[in-house]
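Subject: sequence -> structure tokens, single chain

Hey, anyone have a minute? Need the predicted structure for the following. Not urgent.
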Amino acid sequence: MDHRRKKQIEQNRDKNRSFHATRFDHAYSQIGDLTYEYNADTGLAYASPVRGVWNIVHIATLVPEGHQIFVCPTSCLRGVVLTTAEMGAMDKMSTITVGEDNILEGDMEEMLYAGTERIIRELPRKPRMIMIFTSCIHHFMAVNYHRVYKLLQDKHPEIDFVDCYMDPVMRRTAPVVPSLWRQLHRVLKQSDVLNTKQVNLIGNCFPHKKESCDLSALLYNNGINVLELNSCKTYDEFQMESKSCCNFVFHNHGVKAVKDMEIRLKQKWFKLRPGYSYEEYDQDLMEVSRMLGILPPSEKELEELKTKVENKVEDTCRLLEGMPVSIDYTAVDHPLELALYMIRHGFRVESVYVDVFTERQEIFEKLKEQKPDLKIYQTSGWNMRQMDRHREEKILCIGQKAAYFNDSNHFVNVIENEGMYGYRGILTLMDAIIQAYEEEKPMKELVQIKGWGCNCI
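Reply:
Had a minute. Here:
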């Protein structure tokens, strides 16, 4: 090996070893000791028994009148089959097993075509969409699966065939969840006329109700129809998304989809910021109003909302009486910003559970200055398996992972913001915190439910 290359590898190894030792060797680090950097070399990882986060099976099940086919080796199929069985949705999923003989014989394409044909014949009714999930082995073998999809589409024009992927080896460059949201919407065809009174909310597992989302309230008050995949009851209703004039997205994993829809369907899009900044809420609502040509919220309305939120937050903080709070990244998109917001409003935020810093560095630096002793836990860190989860003092947790690692039954059981956004989102969150304070939940039972809140069967 080249001497310079060998020296570089040794230096990188030392750097990575130092990084992990500084940050997570003792289960947690204080944010004051950390720097805002991301190290992709995670090394040995720990997977906790917390299973509430949705995966590709749950998301694909949102498609009404849809059917999933997973084409993988047996070891890969085990996880998706168990997930589907636990949901009670085995009628929405089929499998095609890839064996060693298929690799040796080189008949992967024939097997994919014949297997899909057999599944279609044996289903009690033809689905409107079939999502075919190929795996890593298909990429390794350079399988021409697009040719197979074309043959299937020509034979079954009444079915939309969608190429989906379950390839964890691509999780860095092409993560499966953003790709899936994009692929699900590729069946939509460009409309000649877009409806200026209809918009789509893209990339959400949970519906955004007007009671807990400022955007939905604004749209509802202006007579704008809102379509979300998670709320569509029929495939035809889902297809109506192609006629919407705008797409709005909250989560980063939905951005691929709206960018693709802008190119194909000529639909404008805008990403709202689901953080905890009043100024950003106001700016986002103004921009949405401008895009749709509707009246924005009045200054009086916004001031009334701010006052209501401030009073609610103050009352909630007073109720907790200094009870420690812990937040994790599975509950909200911006755990650091939520921690900063709550600390500034008097809450005793003790810890944040997050694997990677994805929020703005500005938030990280402000939080570091505001509370340098804030504990940061990497939930996938190898040493979390031996973490002492027993606590003498009760702690209120926001998120399932925070609840599990703190062994707390006082927790807000939400995943991925659960439709909360803006002032109304904060009000809804405070109500959930109050409920978590007053009522215990069976944490050990709840966190084992895979795909929390996926009631789409």
